[in-house]
Write a structure and sequence with these properties.
The complex is a heterodimer of chains A (36) and B (219).
Chain A (H helix, E strand, L loop, with lengths): L1 E2 L3 E5 L6 E5 L14
Antiparallel strand pairs in A: 1-2, 2-3
Chain B lengths: L61 E4 L4 E5 L5 E5 L13 H14 L45 E2 L3 H4 L14 H10 L15 H4 L8 E2 L1
Antiparallel strand pairs in B: 1-2, 2-3, 4-5
The chains are: A mainly beta (36), B little secondary structure (219).
Chain lengths: 36, 219
Amino acid sequence: MIQKSDVIAILYESDNAWRQIFLDGRELGNDFLRPS
Amino acid sequence: MAHIPAHLFYVGRRARGEREGSRRTDGPGPEINQNVTTRVIPDTTPIPGYHATPFSEGPYQRTCSTKRSMSLTAFRDGWITIALNGEVKNENTTEPRKGIRNFVFHSHLVLICAPVYGQWVKVPTGRIPRGPDGKPNLSAPAPRSPDGHPDLSGVWESGGARYILDIAADLNPATVPFMPWAKALVDERADGSHSERIPLQTACPEASRGSMPRPHLGR
C-alpha cells in the first residue's frame, strides 16, 4: 500500500490488481455505482 | 584373463594373414610396408606368447603405438599385449583420468554457484511498532503521516476470506454506512432468494455489483 498526500494506491499480489483512492477531494465519477 | 574390451584392437599377424600361433616372441617379425594402410580388426582373444605380466596402473586402458615395430596395449583388466611389427590405431582409446578430470571440473562449476533469492525472505519494515521482545505490537496506535493522517503505507497481508464474504462482518448492521441502493440490495438478498446464484453475490455489496472481490487487508 502506497500512501501519498493526494492518493492511496493498493497493489495486490494476486492477478496484478490495483486500486486508487484519491484524496484530493475530487467529485465521484458517473460510473461510481459500477466501478471497474 | 577375465575380459578384454571389444573396442581394443590388435593388429599383427592376423592383419597380415599369418597363421595364429605360428610366431612366438623369439626373433624379429617380418618387415611391413609402412605406406600400406593396415586393416584394423577387433581382437578379443588373448594370443599365446603375446601376454606379459599384469598391468596394474588403473581402471583405464592406454594404447601406445610405434609406427614401425611394436605396439603396447594395456587392457583394463590388467594385461599387456605386445604386438610385434604391427600398428594399433588409437581410436576408441580412453585418455587416462579424463573422466576424473571432467568430474572434478564440473563439480567445481556446481560448487561455485551460490544460490540467491529473487525476493527478500524477511521484508525489512522498520516502522512497525514493536514490543520489548521484538514482535510487532498490533495494539499500538496507528502510525501517522506528517499531516496527521493515519499512515497506511507498507506491506499488508490478507486476513482471509471473512471480509470477502461480508465486508461488514465485524460491524453492527444498524450502523453500517450503506448507500441507499446497497442497503436495498442487501435487504433484498438477506432472505436467501438469490442463493442459486454465486454465493459471493448473496450478501456482499461489493460482489453483488459484479466487481472482482479483493481480500481486505490486515496488518
